[in-house]
Amino acid sequence: MKHLAFLAFSAITLFAAAAFAQDKPVAKEEAKPEAVKPAPAKSAAASPKKGAPSRRTEDARHCLEKASNTEVIKCAEEFL
């Protein structure tokens, strides 16, 4: 019984040592406010209007019947 407890303790110790031996990621400095560039604004056609209801819960399987992948994607984007 003592041998089993010793083996279990040894295994736990080895795993803990391996975990502590890993390299820690280097902490990056925070980005300065003037270095941050604003994201470009999306076009009005790409985003739905603010008052428009969300179509996320509607069924978009009919888009799969389109002829090409591009048409399927354009059809399905309305439901995102």
Summarize the structure.
It contains 2 helices and no strands. It has 80 residues and is mostly helical.
Overview of the structural elements:
Helices cover 36% and strands 0% of the residues. The chain is built from two helices and no strands. The protein has 80 residues and is mainly α.
Helix and strand arrangement:
Elements: H1 2-21, H2 69-77
Total count of helical runs of at least 4 residues: 2
- The gross shape turns out to be elongated
Computed CA radius of gyration, to the nearest angstrom: 28 Å
Mean pLDDT: 74
Low-confidence stretches: none
Q: Helical percent range?
A: 25-40%
Quickly give the structural class. Answer: mainly alpha
List the keywords:
80 residues; mainly alpha
